[in-house]
Specification:
Radius of gyration: 27 Å
Distance between the termini: 88 Å
Order of helices and strands: EEEHHHHHHHHHEEEHHHHHEE
Strand order of the largest sheet: 1-2-3
Largest sheet: 3 strands, antiparallel
CATH architecture of the largest domain: Orthogonal Bundle
Shape: elongated
CATH superfamily of the largest domain: Intergrase catalytic core
Number of domains: 3
Structural class: mainly alpha
Strand content: 5-15%
Length: 335
């Protein structure tokens, strides 16, 4: 057993290498996911060598190629994290045997990780095998055989302004500033945390291309309600601090929301004030209006409400109304 918990609730990791035991005790509060990462690091550091069969190298060697490649990615630490998470299931596995190894990994990870998280590790394995194939270390791209899990990440939670205010009041000062900036700009959490005073340009915020998800510069107008919160830029907490502070606040406020819901709320409020989808697209920084169309149902609801009002006016004028079968019926004349 390579991972276990002691009587004090602390996780331990132990592996055997060439008859020698390597053991690490994790700090309090560490998760089983952390333990798996430590185990992967220990196995890699131990340098367990396996014979490399021509055309069928060990996955440890192939994942090493990916870890080198990850250094060139936009988020190298995140890519490395997802790759190392898969480490325990790839130990001793040849490239040609990757399918049953990944099947076992998925089975073990289910219930502990969300499908999207598992898919990040599968994606790292697929990318590693693609690199090996391009370097002609393997005869085919074995990663093409691997399927990702279906994800159901669609979440459309929209808050009323009163609920946002209740949430913000439950936050610490820095988290509260981030909440209002998110609502009044539609910016993502990472974009807010990277804002610097030089990004405040008179009547607008300049979101640098390197700080956006789409890698495109974005300009967001500064509305009067946003001005008081700009003095908190740069936000004096990191991503983990914002995540933890927001989690505490939502529990205190009694709301089942996440930080990204503030971005959805910004979009819904804009649409409910009559803002065209193209303008919402530009504010949120979507690459195409297709992405923004997820909010189109809000426009339809607003249009339906407007037509209902028009219908009531028409009824008052003509005395006619439409029956359930679509027939125009006549009301009795008013005395």
């Amino acid at each position: 057993m390579s991972i276990w918990t002691d009587k004090d609730g602390r996780l331990h990791v132990g592996i055997m290498v060439a008859g020698c035991r390597i053991h690490r005790r994790l700090p309090a509060g560490a998760s089983k996911g952390d333990a798996k990462l430590v185990e992967a690091e220990l196995r890699r550091a131990a340098g367990r060598r396996q014979p490399s069969i021509p055309g069928d190298p060990p996955m440890a060697e192939i994942m090493g190629l990916y870890l080198e490649h990850a250094k060139t990615l936009r988020s190298p630490e995140t890519a490395r994290f997802h790759a190392l998470r898969a480490g325990p299931w790839l130990d001793g596995v040849k490239a040609s045997d990757i399918e049953p190894a990944v099947d076992k990994m998925v089975k073990d990870m289910r219930g502990h990780y969300a499908p999207a998280t598992i898919n990040r590790s599968i994606g790292a394995i697929k990318a590693a095998l693609r690199i090996a194939w391009r370097q002609r270390l393997i005869p085919e791209d074995y990663g093409a055989r691997l399927a990702r899990l279906p994800e159901n990440n669609a979440r459309h939670t929209y808050l009323e302004i009163s609920a946002v205010a209740r949430l913000a009041d439950a936050c610490s000062e820095q988290v509260r500033a981030a909440v209002w900036i998110a609502l009044l700009t539609g910016c993502r959490r990472g974009e807010i945390l990277k804002l610097q005073p030089e990004n405040i340009r008179g009547d607008h915020l300049r979101i640098a291309a390197g700080n956006t998800k789409t890698l495109r510069e974005r300009v967001v107008p500064i509305v009067p309600a946003l001005r008081p919160w700009l003095r908190y830029i740069p936000i004096q907490i990191n991503a983990e601090g914002l995540k933890t502070g927001f989690a505490r606040a939502r529990v205190k406020a009694g709301l089942d929301v996440n930080f990204h819901d503030l971005r959805h709320t910004c979009a819904s409020l804009l649409i409910n004030t009559g803002t065209p989808l193209e303008v919402v697209r530009d504010i949120l920084g979507h690459t195409t209006v297709k992405t923004t169309e997820r909010y189109a149902h809000l426009q339809v609801e607003r249009q339906a409400e407007a037509l209902c009002k028009l219908g009531r006016i028409a009824e008052n004028c003509t005395g006619d109304y439409t029956g359930q079968d679509g027939q125009i019926l006549k009301r009795a004349a008013k005395p």
